[in-house]
Amino acid sequence: MDRKTDWAALAARIKQWGRELGFADVGIAPATSSDVAERGLLAWLEAGWHGEMDYMARHGLKRARPAELVPGALTVILARLPYWPDAADAQANLADGERAYISRYALGRDYHKLLRNRLQKLAERIEAEIGPYIHRAFSDSAPLLEGDFASRAGLGWRGKHTLLLTRDAGSAFFLGELVVALPLPPDPPQSAHCGSCTACLTHCPTAAIVAPWRIDARRCISYLTIELKGSIPLDLRPLIGNRIYGCDDCQLCCPWHRNTGPKLTREEDFAVRHGLDRARLVDLFAWSESEFQEKMAGSPIYRIGHERWLRNIAVALGNAPTTPAVLAALAQSRDDPSELVREHVAWALARHHHREVLAVAR
Questions:
Q1: Sign of torsion over alpha carbons 165, 168, 174, 176
Q2: CB burial class (10 A; 0-12, 13-18, 19+) of residue 315?
Q3: Which positions does UniProt annotate for cob(II)alamin binding (predicted)?
Q4: What is the DSSP letter of 137?
Q5: 250 a known binding residue?
Q6: 277 in catalytic set
């Protein structure tokens, strides 16, 4: 590596190479910790809002300190990639209780490998320019506060729902990081543009956003349907509606998402697979374990496994309109081999029975 390297010129070229690789934007942040981020993380952990995500507590402040991940790290290069697919209308899907709602980011193939491969190509392009250097690529695959570093890199600002926001693309994008031992000049952060808006707080179905920039993950539907391994709390089940994997409500209601419209992805890997953007709950509930494994191979949904897939759908069926098809689907799984599935099916059937009793009473 030449000591006379023009680091500002290299930073400009890195951003151009990133755009040529398909990233919507690239920014640069110093690989130093932020007191604000560290205090916020510690307070969140001390409140127990991470729930069963023990890895959050296990890694602790390492998330704010890239040099503990990559010795010698000086800079974090961050890139964002739009994921919103050309799919059936999200709001219409949420309004149809017989359909399943899956977070838009999970309708296609898993993003981790694609982003890491893309970042590795960027790393190789840099190496071709300056020679060997220390670097590692991450995409939601290491203990790193990527939202904090992305906001410090000028890629957007942290919305009150804690997601990174931009004025022209809302928050419908993935983030990836290249942690490097290069003294690149950082980009200035953007100013925030949430103002007095509280749409994400008031629209969260389970009131998981307990205050601006504060989320109790234990109430978040994404946590409940993806991270939680056991039984979904009884009081939260009716609030989940037909959301069987993740939740987009805090994005869908955000003015920066609605007013500009999400930028549709150009990545074929993120295109909708198996009609998941308009699938009926009873059809998905009928998938055997082998069908689930075959159809969800390469999908982010694969990680929750067939048992939790059925658990989530059982809750959604309990919230669905009381129809012969819904009741028959639940009845057929009353004796499922999984105790977890049986419990949620029993709850769903009891919910429909209660509705029928009330209807008769009227």
A1: negative
A2: buried
A3: 63, 140, 164, 175, 222, 247-248
A4: E
A5: yes
A6: no
Which amino acid appears at position 76 of this protein? Answer: V
- 200 marked as binding residue: yes
- Where does 107-209 have alpha helices with state H? 112-130, 146-152, 199-203
141 is in an annotated binding site: no
Going from the C-alpha of 47 to that of each of 40, 168, 322, the distances in angstroms are 11, 34, 39
Place of tokens 């209780």: 97
Partner residues linked to 88 by β-bridges: none
Question: pLDDT tens, position by position, for the chain (362 residues)?
Answer: 556 889 999 999 999 999 999 999 999 999 998 888 888 888 888 888 888 888 887 877 888 889 998 999 999 999 999 999 999 999 999 999 999 999 999 999 999 999 999 999 999 999 999 999 999 999 887 778 999 999 999 999 999 999 999 998 899 999 999 999 999 999 999 999 999 999 999 999 999 999 999 999 999 999 999 999 999 999 999 999 999 999 999 999 999 988 767 778 999 999 999 999 999 999 999 999 999 999 999 999 999 999 999 999 999 999 999 999 999 999 999 999 999 999 999 999 999 998 876 666 66
Helix H or strand E encompassing 243: strand 243-245
Domains and CATH numbers, the chain: 7-85+107-180 (no CATH), 280-362 (1.25.10)
Residue 253 assigned ligand-binding role: no
The annotation status of 229 as a binding-site residue, yes or no, is yes
Q: Buried b vs exposed e over 103-126: b needs ≥16 C-beta within 10 Å?
A: bbbbbbbbbeebbbebbebbbebb
Count of Cβ atoms closer than 10 Å to residue 153 Cβ: 29
CA dist., res. 284 & res. 309, Å (int): 9
Cβ atoms within 10 Å of 99's Cβ, excluding its own: 22
The annotation status of 277 as a binding-site residue, yes or no, is no
Pick the catalytic residue from 86, 96, 140, 269: 140
